[in-house]
Design goal:
The protein is of the alpha+beta class. The protein is 65% helix and 15% strand. The protein has two domains: 3-54 and 109-277 and 321-430, Outer membrane efflux proteins (OEP); 57-105 and 278-317, no CATH class.
Length: 434
């Protein structure tokens, strides 16, 4: 069997659970992959900042020409040397220079750069966690949407069977000209059957849409199967105070905002440090040689055609663009103030999302309880009406009304159970608990 077919067969053999889908979403969601790439970029910037203690080494090398001749004549009386210049023979210049600068003291610039890059990585890690939490929430929503649609389809199938039996019974009674049912009652049964089929179409659409959402978020290639699961009971609502404490400590948005403040503060120190020069150790070596020039030992104090000199020095390096540097300090201070405001906004949003999730869960729990009772009552009425109608003691109108009540109550119950699971998933996301 080909590898692709084998993988597909294994996937079909083992249906995916909610946990499987969540793990796939963490790895494969495009938003999470984009955030992971941004984290890799931030990590590289951190490594660059930490490597600033390594000497900065620059080198230059070239071969140039043609160069004019500049040779000494040694055949004149009294051993007086003169220079013979001209363009023949042609020559070439070989030059190389190497310089290394080791920072000794930078007025805090190195430390500030390292601190800013470290906090940048931590902030980006928090943003990666946020992207993964959003992916998990989206795939969880799709999963419970699929299960709700599947359960709704099962309910529709059961009601459809009861209606089909009632329609068959109605046709028989009409053929026998029974007073138990009228032509209008039979048409109402047909009307209810059409409404049930319309609900079935909605369930099929919801299931297909949920499957597409799971495929896209979880990055699933090829055919797959979801493990069937009944919608569980509505979860209990935890304490809001404890949830708020957890959310402010664990939410990725809060962590990212706090790390962004620390990074911006370090950048302010970095820009202020740039107002001062750097103190460093400079070492280097220069070499120059020309093929058609003489290099006397004493006649020239400085010979541009030849050089062979190493050097070592302690140097200051800086610029005097003070107004520009002061402007950049103000810019980074403004960025710091923006980061502080962003953290305050993030905390406000966290409180709002948490309150909304708790409210949605409380509402869903009440609806689940009420609609479950309605469903039980509606089912009992529909069964009694069906038995009475089959036994010739009940009217088709009562069967119609009671079946419609049961169908609507059961659909509302499933919708409330889905809302409860969705609200609990939103609650987990709001406290950073995925």
């Amino acid at each position: 069997m080909m590898p692709g077919l084998l993988a597909a067969a294994l996937l079909l053999a083992q249906a995916l659970t909610l946990k499987d889908l969540q793990e796939r979403a963490r790895r494969n969601d495009p938003r999470a992959q984009q955030a992971a790439a941004q984290l890799e970029n931030a990590s590289a910037k951190r490594d660059e900042a930490h490597a600033m203690n390594f000497p900065q080494i620059e080198y230059t090398a070239f071969v140039g020409g043609p160069s004019p001749q500049h040779l000494l004549q040694r055949d004149l009386p009294n051993d007086v040397n003169t220079v013979r210049e001209g363009w023949t023979p042609l020559g070439a210049v070989f030059h190389g220079e190497l310089q290394a600068i080791l920072p000794l003291y930078t007025f805090g610039k190195l430390g500030a750069g390292k601190s800013a890059s470290d906090h940048l990585v931590l902030a980006t890690e928090a943003l990666l966690q946020r992207a993964r939490d959003q992916a998990v929430y989206d795939v969880t929503k799709a999963y419970w949407g699929y299960q709700a649609a599947r359960n709704a389809d099962t309910s529709v199938i059961n009601i459809r069977k009861r209606l089909q039996d009632a329609q068959d019974r109605a046709k028989k009674l009409l053929a026998d000209q029974s007073d138990q049912i009228s032509k209008s009652d039979s048409l109402k049964l047909d009307y209810l059957a059409e409404e049930i089929e319309a609900q079935h179409a909605g369930a099929v659409k919801g299931a297909q849409l949920a499957l597409t959402g799971m495929r896209l978020v979880a990055g699933i290639q090829g055919p797959f199967e979801i493990a069937p699961q009944d919608l569980p009971a509505a979860p209990e609502t935890p304490s809001l105070e404890k949830l708020l404490e957890r959310a402010l400590a664990n939410r990725p948005e809060a962590k990212a905002a706090s790390e962004a403040i620390k990074a911006r503060a370090a950048l302010v120190d970095l820009e202020r440090g740039k107002l001062y020069p750097d103190l460093g150790l400079v070492a280097g070596y220069r070499f120059t040689e020309t093929t058609n020039a003489s290099n006397p030992a004493r006649q020239f104090l400085g010979n541009p055609y030849f050089d062979n000199s190493p050097y070592l020095a302690v140097a200051l390096r800086g610029t005097l663009d003070i107004p520009q540097k002061l402007a950049r300090v103000r810019q980074t201070e403004a960025d710091l103030h923006e980061a502080i405001a962003t953290r305050a906004g993030a905390e406000t949003l966290i409180r709002f999302e948490l309150q909304q999730a708790v409210g949605d869960l409380d509402e869903a729990r009440v609806k689940v309880d009420r609609y479950s009772k309605e469903t039980a009552i509606g089912k009992q009425l529909a069964v009694q009406a069906g038995v009475a109608f089959d036994g010739g003691l009940g009217e088709a109108r009562e069967l119609l009304e009671d079946t419609l009540l049961y169908a609507r109550a059961d659909g509302a119950r499933l919708s409330a159970l889905f809302d409860a699971q969705l609200a609990y998933a939103a609650l987990e996301k709001a406290v950073g608990g995925f």
